[in-house]
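This entry is set out below.
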Amino acid sequence: MATSRSRKPRRAGSYVRISEDPSGQEKGVGRQKEDVEELAQRLGWQVGKVYEENDTSAYKRKRIRLADGRSVWRVERPEFRQMLRDYEDGAIDGIIVYDLDRLARQPRDLEDLIDLVDHFKRPVAGVTGSLDLMTENGKAMARVLVAMANKSSADTARRVARAKVQSAREGRALPTARAFGWQDDHVTLEPREAELLRKAVADFTAGETWTGITAAIIDSGMPTVKGGRWRLRSVKQMILSPRVAGIMPYRGKVSTMAAPDEPDVNGADGSGSDEENQTRSSRDLALRDAEGAYVRGPWEPIITVQQWEDLITEYERRQEGAEFTSQGTRSSYLLSGLLRCARPCEDGTPCNGKMVGVAEGSRSGRRVGGRKNPRMFYRCPGKVSGGCGNSQRGMKSMDQLIEDLLFLHLEENRPAEDDPQPEAEPEHPDAVRLADVSKRLSMMRNGMREGTVSPESFFAVVPGLEAQEKKLIAGLGKARRAQADRAARLRTPEEVRADWENATIPGRRELLGQYLQAVIVHPAQAKGRGVFDHTTIEPVWKPLPQ
């Protein structure tokens, strides 16, 4: 056993770790403690503190948000980090471990320890082999061994991931708990729950917001599977899940280096953490085969695949944030953010402040003076908030005027009955290119798996193809959202009126956003309390599809 020739530690730190302990009996770390104590006695070291991490991985990394908003991926081992701090502070004067792979499986962790050993010259020893970080040869050997341990963990993760994908494809990856919308057998629909989800999908596609949908589900009195409270976040994940369309979901990431032929899947139930799910498209949660087709599950679908595609297209359209409704979906007032103040500023340019709903006598919209039903206005905010603070219009009159103008606009632009129906959208050229790229990727992956493609060729070609695939998917998504917006604005006035009458305020805001770019509010000419000058209101319409 090679250790430093410096004086023997009198208060060494003992580090023990085991990756998995399903029983929670800590037998693995217990055996390591016994072996570490025996080695300490042979070396003449005295152990002053034990750092124990049971059921803790030294390989799996988690996303950590830094103070500046950026993210890093690190292994979370609080006891290991505390040991490094104690080593640096002098609370321990050496480290003794069972084995190097118990100490580190990520090169970054090993380098952090090597930096400290280089500076403080306190020894590190291991039970099962030669561990000497005081010499260059010892550090080089440790780096090689940790790199090999890291690869071993990656290989294991890839095999487990591949097995889970296969399990999903064979329909064996059903959730252990009953999912809302299905019965206890996990495959048969629960009629009332399924109908509630079906309506939620239709309402969102028609313009309703997540807040409105969650409120409707709560008002239905339908309990959650576990009897807890309905929350907007869980409702959103449930409705966007590919499972509602009968598509096999999974929680994972595509990683060429980790698994050349398959996604790196960490689970097959689509139940990724909130932060993980927020960082990728809902389409990425749908499992596909090598040809790019959706893998179908054995359960009954609640909606069709096309309805799910339309749902995700509408969700992505709103996510782009280009519409006034995307920035104000929580507003309680129909026209907040849509009205633009045109009162001239000192330099003669229009104010262009976004007018918002407020109560009489208030600049924040809160109830004032104890009045239960204060008069409501749309007001241009003050200079601090980017407006002039000098324009306002009665909310009730303004809401009714814009509603009337909307349906007058639709009637005036109603297509004649003898007009030809709009032609079906031709297949987007990117769809053809995407199919070709996906096919070439499939051939490369199959060739890598079967040994007909060399690793050198694979890693030289596949990253470029994957970049093309990602770009084409993004372009197609944008085209689909534009097509969906065009189709929505080709509806008849009667169809829009039916949606309008059934929609909540957020839903009506979404409908307005399909037709209006803004409403310009010019300075009023008529004076007097209660006088509404409709001639100063100028709607700016989006061009209707031809």
